[in-house]
Amino acid sequence: MAHDDSSGKDLAATSSGAGGLSLDRDLVPSKQVSGGLAVISDDNLPDPGLPPHRKRVTDQDPKKASTAQRQVYTLFYLSIAGSIFAIAAYMAFPINANDPGSVRLNTVFLGLGITLALMGIGLGAVHWAKTLMHDEEGIDIRHPVRSSDEVRARAVEIFHEGNVESGFGRRSLIRNSLIGALVAFPLPAVILFRGLGPQNEVPSELLSHTMWKAGARLTLDPSGLPIKASDVTLGSAFHIIPEGLNDAPDRLEQKAKAAVLLMRVNPADLNVSAGRESWNYDGIVAYSKICTHVGCPVALFEQQTHHLLCPCHQSTFDVNNECEVIFGPAKRPLPQLPITVDGEGYLIAQSDFHEPVGPSFWERS
Predict the structure, then answer these.
(1) For a designed S-S bond to 238, which of 209, 262, 312, 346 qualifies (C-beta 3.0 to 4.6 A apart)?
(2) Which domain of life is it from (predicted)?
(3) Rounded to whole angstroms, how far apart are CA atoms 220 and 239?
(4) Residue 145 has pLDDT above 80, yes or no
(5) Single pTM value for the model
(6) C-alpha to C-alpha distance for 326 and 118, rounded to whole angstroms
(7) What is the average pLDDT value for the chain, to the nearest integer?
(8) Which residues on adjacent β-strands are paired with residue 307?
C-alpha cells in the first residue's frame, strides 16, 4: 500500500515473507536522511602526507644562526651566574631568628638567584631546540618490543645522527655552557641543605643536651607558666617547655630540642622498665615531642588508646609502654624526661633526657 507523508513524497511498503515491512529503496529520496540514521562508508581516505616544510630564518641565514647560538650560550652562562648569586646571597644575608627583616632579605635574593638559574637553563634549552636543532618532520614506525640486531644497530646510528643534527658535539660553546649550568645549578641546594645541619659539631652531642636540668620547672607552651601536678587531670595532655626558655637568646633552637608532651594516665596501666620506676609522678609522664623518624612535632594524643601520633608520617607511640613504636617508620621510642614535684606541688625535671632526642639517623654513641 502507498502512504502520502507530510512532505508529499511517496514511500512504498510491501509485505515481506515474514509478515514484516520493508522499504522500497528506489522510492526513498537519496539526498534526504533522517536524524536517526547513521551513514557508514567503506571508502579509504588517502594519506594527506606531511605539510610542506617551512625553513626557519636560522636555516637560511648563517648570521642569524650565529646570533641564535650566542643567545643560547649566553642564557646558559646567565644560569651559572644565577647559581653563584644564590650561593652568595645565602651567605651575604644570613637569617637571624630575632629579625624578620633578615628572613625577607634572604628569601628575596636567594629566590632571585635560583629563579635566574632555572630560567637560564629552561629558556636556553628551548631557544636552542627552536632555532638551531634539526628541523625536519619525520614519521616513526612502531616496532615489536624486541627489535632485530639490525634495528638496534640502527638505533645507535640514530643517536649519532641526533648528535650531529643537534650540534651538541659540534657547538662547543653551547655544550660547555650547558654542562656548566647543569653543574652549577644544584650547588645552591647543596649549600642550603648543608646550612640546615649543625656546623663543625657532632649532631649526637648537640641533641644529647637540652635546657632540661634537675629542678627545672615544667611550663606551658607558649605562655611559660609553671604547671602543678594537680592541674594535669586523667587523660589530659599539655605542650611543655623548660622554665626560662622564652628568655633564651637562641629560643627557637632550644625549643626544637626541649619541647615535651605531658600526659596523665592510670598508673596501673603503665608498664615501667627497671630503673625508670621514679621517672613518672602518679601516672604523669613526659616524653620528647620530637619524632624519632625525621623530627616532626608529635602533637596528637589519643585519650582512649593512650597513643601518640606523629602527623607527618603516622608514626604511632604507645604511652603505656614507654612510647614504644607500634606503627609507622620511626625506629625507636620517644625519649622520656624524668619528672617529679617540688615542695610547692609544681612539676619539675629530675634531669635532662638520658639519650639524644630527635631523628634516629643521627650518629649515636
Answers:
(1) 262
(2) Bacteria
(3) 6
(4) no
(5) 0.51
(6) 43
(7) 83
(8) 302, 318
Asked if pLDDT for residue 142 goes beyond 60, the answer is yes
Three-class secondary structure of residue 365 per DSSP? coil
Q: How far apart are CA 234 and CA 270, in angstroms?
A: 13
CA 313/CA 331 separation, integer angstroms: 12
d(CA 293, CA 332) in angstroms, rounded, equals: 8
Contacts of 74 (CB under 8 A, 6+ apart): none
Q: Are 348 and 236 in contact (CB under 8 A)?
A: no
The set of residues, in sequence order, having a beta carbon less than 8 Å from that of 11 and lying 6+ positions away, is 2, 3, 5, 23, 24, 27, 28
Least confident range from 21-35, 86-100, 235-249: namely 21-35
Instruction: Give CA–CA dist 10/109, Å, rounded.
Output: 84
Cell of 322: 614507654
pLDDT at 143: 59
Pairing mode, if any, of strands 260-264 and 284-288? antiparallel
Tell which residue, 115, 128, 41, has the closest CA to residue 83: 115
Read off the C-alpha cell for 342: 617540688
* Burial of 206 from C-beta contacts in 10 A (0-12 / 13-18 / 19+): middle
Question: Across the strands, what pairs with 340?
Answer: 348
